[in-house]
Give the backbone structure.
Amino acid sequence: MPHTETKQEPSHEGQPENSSETVLAEHASALNTPTLRLIEEEHTVPEHLAGARVDQVAALVFPTFSREKLKQWLGNGSLTLNGASPKASSRVVGGETLQLRAHETVVCHDRAQAIDLSIVHVDEDVIVINKPAGMVVHPGTGNPDGTLVNALLFHFPELEALPRAGLVHRIDKDTSGLLVVARNLESQLSLTQQLQEKSVYRIYDAVVQGEVIAGGTVDAPIMRHPHQRTAMCVRNDGRPSVTHYHVAERFGPFTLLTLQLETGRTHQIRVHMTHKGWPLLGDPVYGRGFRRPKGATAEFSDRLKSFGRQALHARELGFVHPSTGEECLFEAPWPEDFACLVDSLRQYVANQQEAHEALMNRFRTPAAGVERP
């Protein structure tokens, strides 16, 4: 898939003209009133789900809708199984047709804001964004605006008609890098299914505290921390979570890791690396505080302490294009702060090696008037 150059300006390239979605979004935005959207989808129940409850199957094949919404549609006949209205607890045998025909009320409470976006790629179905560190993905408590969603609604108004403005995954506020946004419901469904099937390719770079000897895999369930509302933790009763990692470069007491997500839990990389004893440098939630490295200059120590976020960047993103079936792969280079951090760590290693060589040369060179034995 050809890559387009990163842009730092508003872009409407590839946006459909006068589409029904755009008209609907503009109407809702202008009047700020509820708008009805017709949903028509049909899926065949996979054979391997034989014996599962209808409501459970529906949640799998219609992942863009909440379980409560799907139960409501099962109850009012909007969601049928082979043309009949089953109970939510009914069991499937596999091969049946689940058909959804319903009207959903669309009300967008998020306002469009003229915020620049780094757009890596855009077409009629998907948008790939290189999110800067410091930008929240979705409005919420404490972040009512200034988010990625606010920016997306400005550049692509038709997203107002989609659940979560087309979002299919998120990255943390202080994590930089790539994420994909759907421009229509079909693409959102396709990308969500790819995420559930673990076929979306996601590569991250991270600087961790600690000397990692070799790569490996962390297979440890993650759940909400029982006492810290904003934190996650590893617990046996958590959701399955898998992270693969390998060593890219070592800097004495720090290591640059390349990580691949198999699942996508909240804070997954940060939690898994902390679980292994290697918290991310600069992580304000899971970090263990700053310790001055051996032999480090005051300038180097200050540089590390001033790195104001977790050292994590979503570098590569790959998926199957929802319309063309083409395999897409995108890459975002390190942002300036991350690149400067790695350069500083490399210089620290070089200085340590130089100091070591100088010390060894002192022992190799005999003092004046002293003969070698």
Observations:
- Residues 336-364 form the longest helix (29 residues).
- The radius of gyration is 25 Å.
